[in-house]
C-alpha cells in the first residue's frame, strides 16, 4: 500500500507542476488586506498590456501604464462601489477575463485614491493610498477650422482623437473637452454651436447629412470608450441657451426691443418666427418632445418682413429670464431661438436629455456654453439632478465670458460652487502681454484673475476656439508668448489647466507648438508638486520653484521673461543639487549652493524649466 500511495502522490505532484507551468504563478490574495497568502516562483513572460477592471470603470477595461519592465501602474479613485457593492478591482491580462488577478476581488476603501502597481512576472499587486495631488490636464480637443467629416474615407475628428489617445495619456493629459457632438443647423458644416437636435449624435439624415462635422454616432461612442480605456475622462460640450435651424415657422405676438437695452421696448406686432422643431428625420427615436414658440423667450428674425431685430415673445409668464448678466441691461438673449428657462416643460426636457446623454454616451462631465445668458440658478437644479440620478461626480466648467473678476466670483457664489469657470481675465492678460512688445509688467500677470482669487474653481487656458484669429471673441495670444503662458498654467500649483488643440497641432494663423507643449505637460506630470515659492518681483523676469513631495521628490524651478534674458536667485531647498533645463532652451547646468539657493538663467523672450538631476 505504501508503494501505491507514493505512486499516486508522485502523479499528483507531476500533474500539479504541469498545471503550474501552463498557468504561471498561482497566488491567493486576501481580499481585505491584499497580502499574498501563497505563491510560487514560476513566472510568465512580459505582458503586452495590463488592464484595470473594477467598480470605478463599471468593470470595463482601462489600460494601465507601463512604467518599467514587467511593471504596470494606474492611479485611480474609488467611490462607494458605483452600484457594484463594495469598491474593488482585478488586474486583467487580455481584457476578456481569461486571465486576471487576484483570484478574489481586491477590496479597497471607498472614496479613496490609490496608486496600484502590478508586476506581470510575479503577479504581485502593490496597492498604496495616493495622497499626492493628481496633476490633471484638460485638452480642448478641437479648434474652429477643423475639416469636415470625409464620407469617402470615413475620417473626422472622432477617428483622429481615437488614434491620438495613447499619446495623450502618456504625456499626461487626463481629460478631453469634446466639441458639441449633436446635429447643428448647418449639418456636417456646423461646428456644433448652432444647435438643432441634441439627440442626433450623427445617426440620422438631418440638415443634409447623417454625420456631424466630427463623425458618426458610433465613432463618437468609440472615442469616449477609447478615452476611458486610457484612463482619460470626457467632458461633453452642452449648449442650452438656444436652438437654430427650425423645421417651420409660426406666428407669434412679440415686442421688438433695443439691441443695446433689451428692456427698452420699441414696437409690438405679430412676427413669423422659426420656432417649430419636429425633427422628422429622427422620427421620435429617444424622445418625442417637440419645440414650439412658447418654449422660447424670443428670436432675432421675422421671416415675414425679413427683418433682423430682437423680438421678445409676449404671453403669460413671457419675459427675459433673470438673473443673467447685466450687459445690455439684460443679456438673456444671445442668438437663435432663446430657451425659456422659466417654463417647467423646458426644464424637465433638459433634465431628460441630460440623463439620456450621460447614460447613452458614458461621459464624465460637462463644459457649459454661454452660462451668463442663462438664469443663474438653472444649473443649480440641473446639476443636482444630473449628479443624483446618474451617481456620477460630473466635473463641470462653465463659460462665463467676462474679464470682470467680480462677475465671475459672483456667479460661483450664486451657483454655490457647483461648477468651475474659465479664467477669462488671465487669458486677457496673456493676450495683452504677448502684444506689448516686452513692455508688459509681468509682476501683475496674475492680478485680478480667477486663479488668484478662487484657485479651486479656476480653469486656466491660453487660447480657445472663440479667441483664435477670425472668431467673435478674437483675442489671440501671439505664438512667441505661448510657451511662457503654458508654463504659467501648467507648472503652478493653482488652477486646472486647459490646453488648446490648435496650439498643439496648428490652426489658421496659429503655429503648431506640439513639442514644447508636450514637454510642459510632461514636466507637470513629473515635477509640479509640493510647496511653491514665488518670485514675481521683476518687470520682465519672473519665476517660481516647486519643492516636490514624497511621491515626486525632485525639485523644479521655472523662470521666464517677456523681455531680455537674465537670471534670478530662487530657493530650491536642496544643497549642491544639479539642475538642467527640461525644455532644452539652455544647455548649461545650474548647481544650488550650500544654503539651498541657485541662480537660474533664461534666454530673452523665453522660458526655462530647470529640473533636479
TrEMBL record:
Residues 136-524 form the Glycosyl hydrolase family 13 catalytic domain. The keyword Hydrolase applies. Keywords: Glycosidase, Hydrolase. SMART domains: Aamy. This is Alpha-amylase. One of its GO terms (molecular function) is alpha-amylase activity. The keyword Zinc does not apply. Its EC number is 3.2.1.1. Coiled coil: none annotated. InterPro entries: Alpha-amylase_C_pro, GH, GH13_cat_dom, Glyco_hydro_b. It comes from Marinitoga aeolica.
